[in-house]
Each structure stands twice: as C-alpha cells, then as structure tokens.
Amino acid sequence: MRTDSVGYRDENLGVGAVLTTAAFFCVALVGTLAKVGGDHTSTGVLLLFQNAVGVLFLLPVVFRADRRMLRTDRIWLHVLRAATGTACWYALFFAITQIPLANATLLTYSAPLWMPLIAWAVTRHRVAAPTWLGAGIGFVGILMVLQPQGHGFSAGELSALAGALMLAVAMMSVRWLGATEPVLRILFYYFLLSTVMSLPIAIADWQPVGAAGWPWLAGLGFAQLFSQALIVLAYRYASAEKLGPFIYTVIVFTAVIDWIVWDHRPTLSTYIGMALVVGGGLFAMRARSPAAVSG
C-alpha cells in the first residue's frame, strides 16, 4: 500500500463506481456478520472488535512506513470522521437487533439524501430545486418503509435514521480528507480513533464472547477494514456526491442476504419505498447544480 500518494486522481467515475460497489458489498457483509455476532456478544463489543481488528492489521504497516506519514494538520477532521462513523455503526448495530436487517440498512444508507443539505450547510452553494424534489421523493419512500401510522417510529427505526445523518457527515469528511491525506493515514487514524471511542462503550456494555463467536468477530473486523479501504480509494476518483448513488447497492446486497438467511421477505410497500428512496436519491444526485457539484 502506497503511503506517499495524496490528493485526488484524475476523475474516473467508472473506477470509482466499481470501488464503491465493492466497498458496499463489504458493508453488507459487516451488517450480516454483526447480526450473527450479536447472538454471541453485545453491541458495544461488536463495535470495539470491528475497529480493533483494523488497528492490529495496520500497525505493522505503519511501523514499516515513514513515521512522518502520520503527521497531519487535519486531526480534527479525522476526529469528525471517526466520531460520526462510530456513531453510525453503533446506531446500525442497535437497529438490526430491533428491526429486519434490510430495513435497518435501507434507512441508514438513505445518507445520500442528506448530502445536498450538508454540502449546502458547509459551502453555502445554492442547491437546485430538482435536488430538493429528489430528496423529498426519497423521504416519501422512507415513510413507506416505516409505515408509522398508528404505531409511530420504533427505537430501531429512529436509530437507523440517526445513523443515516451520521453516515452522510462521515462520507463527506472522507472526501475532504482525500484532498491532502494519503490512504494509509486516513485508514490508520480512523481505526485508531474509532477504537478509542468505542472502548468505553464496550466496557459499559461488556459481555463475554464464547468460542463460537470469535470467527464472526474476526470476519466483522476484516469486512470493515476492506470496506473502509475501498471507500477511501473510490473517493480519490470521484466526489462523494457523484458516487453517492452507488451506495444503494448495499440495499440490494442486504435485502438478498436478509431474504436468504433470515427469510425476511420485503412487503409490497417496502419494495415501493426502496424504489422511491433509490430513485429519489439518484434524481437528487443528477440534479445537483454545477456549483454544488464542484463544491
């Protein structure tokens, strides 16, 4: 893994799309392994091992690299990325203990619908009206999946939606970091800071892990490592806004896994809701104003 390469590559949306799709296949595996691993330990322990495996894997690489590689002037952006990423994963892990995996994933990975709002808040560039229309369509789809009439929103659904907002910020921060930071530095600080942040959560939520649980925890950690590496690489070839639509591949991967493994067959309203979320997100991304896209 090269450590001296910083900044964006020449834009190549095809390469970025392939890397993003591969990354979110790994993300689907993370959710699956976390759901299975949750039968063997607590959410806090899952969160800790998800990050600690990455730190243990990267430490030898960092020690062999030039130590100057760890110097950064953007430590607070690394902290923001780690904090929002950790919060997103905890929210998703809790959500999948309460609602079907496919629903939790759909709600969490509605994050691209929030990206135009976040980009506007940061850059103050005007957001085109069709972008808001696309986001509105997506939010109607979310309501169709949730169907809150009569029962309100469950804790799992609210947790997944909170995770979506955190994920949107985390993904934008990856793109901002990619302008100046090498891949290894971004990955190392993410896993190191996320491990530190998840440690007190794991201690408070500690539950012993039986022998049958360790393979699932190891798989969870490596799936997370691969997903983060692929995401960082993808955002060097295209912006988070342009690659946002490919995030929705995780919904397809997870829905198939949820159906095969847990026999959670989506209802008609869920299918329609998924189509609206994906369609609205795609419309919002394509309709972004030139100024917003370049921001």
Automatic annotation (TrEMBL):
Transmembrane segments: 12-33, 45-63, 75-96, 102-122, 129-146, 158-177, 186-204, 216-238, 245-262, 268-285
GO cellular component, one term: membrane
Membrane topology: Multi-pass membrane protein
SUPFAM superfamilies referenced in this protein's UniProt entry, alphabetically: Multidrug resistance efflux transporter EmrE
Chief localization: membrane
Entry keywords, A to Z: Membrane, Transmembrane, Transmembrane helix
Pfam families given in the database record: EamA (PF00892)
InterPro entries in UniProt: EamA_dom (IPR000620), EmrE-like (IPR037185)
Domain EamA: 16-146, 156-283
Compartment annotation: Membrane
Family: Belongs to the EamA transporter family.
Protein name: EamA domain-containing protein
Native source organism of the sequence: Mycolicibacterium gilvum (strain PYR-GCK)
Species lineage: Bacteria, Bacillati, Actinomycetota, Actinomycetes, Mycobacteriales
